[in-house]
């Protein structure tokens, strides 16, 4: 199964990119997923990004907090994703913050990006606070249990991906008639 890790920052050499690479390494070594990183700072939103999303069975969305919301480049990715590219595929939100924030991008993505895409966000999400102290071994001096939480969320994402893949074709057929709203 393929998982697309989306580094949602518009900045080159961002913490989102660094965290995405750490997660890519972890997923490659400890899960059934084959990970690919889509760095939105290096790869503009377009046909290539949507092709990667179409092939993926699941997503990990690494989102930095920009003025209390998800960055515009990440929102553009979701707005330009036509049904059924993301539809009925599970996604794990990983919000990052240089300080004690990070909750607002989770709320922003959940509230504004699922309606037309039909992406299925997991009930759980991750917030990596004080991201500069987040190590390649998924440790954090401020949050010692973070590595276990990441591991559990990746395992849940695998389960969601496996189960949704079994019913996705049926869901796409039913949802095609109402792909743009209520």
UniProtKB/TrEMBL annotation:
InterPro entries recorded: Flavoprotein-like_sf (IPR029039), FMN_Rdtase-like_dom (IPR005025)
Magnesium keyword on record: no
SUPFAM superfamilies: Flavoproteins
Protein name, per record: NADPH-dependent FMN reductase
Organism, scientific name: Pseudomonas fluorescens
Keyword Flavoprotein among record annotations: yes
Any GO molecular function: oxidoreductase activity, acting on NAD(P)H, quinone or similar compound as acceptor
Keywords: Flavoprotein, FMN
Residue ranges of every copy of the NADPH-dependent FMN reductase-like domain listed in the record: 1-128
